[in-house]
């Protein structure tokens, strides 16, 4: 019977071996889970991270002040970044070389620095050294500080979107007598933004998380965003519950957005 | 209209007059001294093998391509003059592309009205009236609310023709407008073009459709290797070509 060259000669068949190794993986999992459940002091952990009394104390302020401010700072800096990013993208594609240099330098510089450094520069560097105060208090500083960083990232995304619009679209618009300006604003840019909605939404999610850096601005009780709110309360109570609550708040904001990005990507992939 | 340059009413010469046109892409010379005319009301078909420069010639006529040297007169105005207002010139020249190039983010109606409003400063109701008239002409009035990607290739190309017509051009340029279509959709586009020709539209048609050239053209121009090899009435050029290059091209396509 030497013709069955594919059959192993050992005691276990291929299928039996697979079943055995799968079983071993389950045994390992159950062992780890058992240790995880039995070893920690769960009562203490619940007291320190899911303290019902502290959770009750956090509401409604964690929503009406902290989450509201996180969303507000995200929105204003996103709009600021989008407008500046569009300007930078157009500069980067300009036929005037110095414009391209300026845009490229800005993008490389701001992407190379930690966002925190830019926020400190706007919040403290400019007022202390040059007496330049961004108007609008914490909101103004947050908008400009985060927006400057966001613009650098969005500029590259927007430029890629504009370049992804087929060349024939510009030619058709120009052949109808439209100026370059009208062709860009009513034909090219609207199509570019459709292409970049998924990456821009990703940018938005990153921005939501980056608002946590705004704690350095020394916010007041009514201008605190989620991270500062949670951290201050943790210091007051010596309890980790506030962190758990703000983590849930962040996820309530970001998860729907990341799901939306995934849905949009599926849809735009189907449209092609 | 009469105060603007490049309008047909006051000009007696040819609609399009190309004189000694050269065009190079880097080291590659695509057009090697072209002389070419289209009179008002005339339909001229330009034929030739791919790479002969016929599409480049057409695209130079509204300066989508920058000529390297030579003169292009549209209704008597030299449009290679760097001081010319190209947007003004292009209003008078309708163009239809091989790839349709409809604006996919706009409905058929807005494809037809956007340039009327932005360029000709027509108000919404006037622009819509013009759009309806031209959609009816191409037989697609029922698609007025549709978006381009819901239309067949033939329908998209007919909308593209209606879009160009909505600017009330003095002449139309057709750049291989049936080459991207499935064979069964070619006929509907050609029949729209035939109707346009019957109405007396001035047309420059770069095409591979020899049947269309034979039936509709007043004159056929054969290009090869960046020069005009031969031109004449369709029955003469297509049935009894004088040049060897014309003969060998026609023997391959007919």
Order of helices and strands of chain A: HHHHHHHHHHH
Shape of chain A: flat
Largest contact between chains: A-B, 19 and 26 residues
Radius of gyration of chain B, taken over Cα atoms and rounded to an integer in Å: 18 Å
Helix/strand class of chain B: alpha/beta
Biggest sheet strand order of chain B reads 6-7-8-3-9-10
Number of strands of chain A: 0
> Number of DSSP helices of chain B?
9
Radius of gyration of chain A: 27 Å
Question: Which class of secondary structure composition applies to the elements of chain A?
Answer: mainly alpha
Would you mind describing this structure in some detail?
- The complex is a heterodimer of chains A (272) and B (254).
- Chain A is mainly alpha-helical.
- In chain A, 79% of the residues lie in helices and 0% in strands.
- Chain A has eleven helices and no strands.
- Chain A has helices spanning 14-38, 42-49, 52-58, 61-92, 97-112, 115-130, 137-164, 167-175, 180-210, 226-237, 241-271.
- In chain A, 29% of the residues are buried.
- In chain B, a hairpin with a 2-residue loop joins strand 4 (69-74) and strand 5.
- Chain B is α/β, with parallel strands linked by helices.
- Mean pLDDT of chain B is 92; it is low at 1-8.
- Chain B has helices spanning 54-61, 86-91, 108-119, 124-137, 153-165, 183-198, 210-216, 234-239, 244-253, and strands at residues 16-25, 28-38, 43-47, 69-74, 77-78, 93-96, 171-175, 202-206, 219-224, 227-232.
- In chain B, 48% of the residues are buried.
- The longest helix of chain B is centred in the last third of the chain and has 16 residues, at 183-198.
- The N and C termini of chain B lie far apart (44 Å).
- The chains are: A mainly alpha (272), B alpha/beta (254).
- Chain A binds chain B through residues 166, 168-169, 171-179, 182, 186-187, 190-191, 194, 271, and chain B through 62, 64, 87-88, 90-91, 93-95, 97, 99, 101-105, 114-115, 118-120, 149, 160, 163-164, 167.
């Amino acid at each position: 019977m030497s013709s069955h060259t594919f059959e192993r000669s050992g005691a276990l068949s291929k299928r039996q071996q697979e079943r055995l190794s799968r079983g071993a993986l389950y045994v390992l999992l159950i062992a780890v889970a058992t240790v995880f459940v039995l070893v920690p002091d769960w009562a203490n952990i619940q007291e320190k991270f899911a303290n019902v009394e502290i959770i009750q104390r956090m509401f409604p302020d964690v929503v009406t002040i902290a989450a509201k401010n996180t969303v507000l700072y995200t929105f204003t800096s996103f709009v600021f970044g989008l407008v500046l990013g569009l300007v930078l993208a157009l500069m980067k594609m300009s036929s005037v070389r110095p414009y391209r240099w300026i845009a490229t330098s800005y993008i490389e510089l701001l992407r190379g620095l930690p966002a925190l450094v830019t926020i400190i520069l706007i919040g403290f560097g400019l007022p202390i050294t040059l007496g330049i105060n961004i108007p609008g208090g914490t909101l103004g500083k947050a908008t400009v500080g985060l927006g400057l960083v966001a613009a650098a990232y969005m500029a590259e995304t927007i430029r890629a979107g504009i370049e992804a619009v087929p060349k024939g679209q510009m030619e058709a618009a120009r052949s109808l007598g439209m100026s370059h300006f009208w062709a860009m604003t009513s034909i090219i840019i609207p199509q570019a933004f459709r292409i970049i909605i998924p990456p821009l939404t990703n940018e938005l999610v990153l921005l939501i998380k980056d608002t946590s850096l705004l704690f350095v601005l020394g916010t007041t009780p009514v201008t605190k965003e989620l991270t500062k709110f949670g951290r201050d309360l943790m210091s007051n109570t010596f309890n980790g519950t506030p962190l758990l609550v703000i983590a849930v708040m962040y996820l309530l904001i970001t998860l729907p957005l990341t799901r939306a990005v995934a849905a949009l990507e599926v849809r735009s992939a189907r449209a092609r | 209209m009469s105060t603007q340059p490049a309008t047909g009413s006051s000009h007696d010469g040819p609609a399009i007059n190309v004189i000694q046109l050269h065009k190079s892409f880097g080291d590659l010379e695509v057009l090697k001294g072209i002389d070419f005319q289209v009179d008002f009301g005339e339909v001229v078909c330009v034929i030739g093998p791919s790479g002969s420069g016929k599409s480049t010639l057409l695209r130079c006529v509204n300066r989508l391509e920058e000529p390297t040297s030579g003169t292009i007169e549209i209704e008597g105005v030299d449009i290679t003059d760097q001081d010319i207002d190209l947007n003004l010139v292009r209003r008078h020249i309708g163009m239809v592309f091989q790839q349709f190039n409809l604006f996919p983010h706009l409905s058929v109606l807005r494809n037809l009205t956007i340039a009327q409003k932005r360029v000709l400063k027509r108000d919404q109701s006037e622009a819509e009236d013009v759009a309806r008239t031209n959609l009816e002409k191409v037989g697609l009035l029922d698609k007025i609310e549709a978006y381009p990607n819901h239309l067949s290739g033939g329908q998209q190309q007919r909308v593209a023709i209606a879009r160009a017509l909505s600017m009330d051009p003095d002449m139309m340029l057709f750049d291989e407008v049936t080459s991207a279509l499935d064979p069964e959709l070619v006929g509907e586009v050609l029949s729209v073009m035939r109707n346009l020709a019957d109405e007396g539209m001035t047309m420059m048609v770069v095409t591979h459709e020899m049947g269309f050239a034979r039936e509709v053209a007043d004159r056929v121009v054969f290009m090869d290797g960046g020069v005009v090899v031969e031109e004449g009435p369709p029955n003469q050029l297509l049935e009894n070509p004088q040049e060897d290059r014309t003969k060998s091209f026609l023997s391959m396509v007919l």
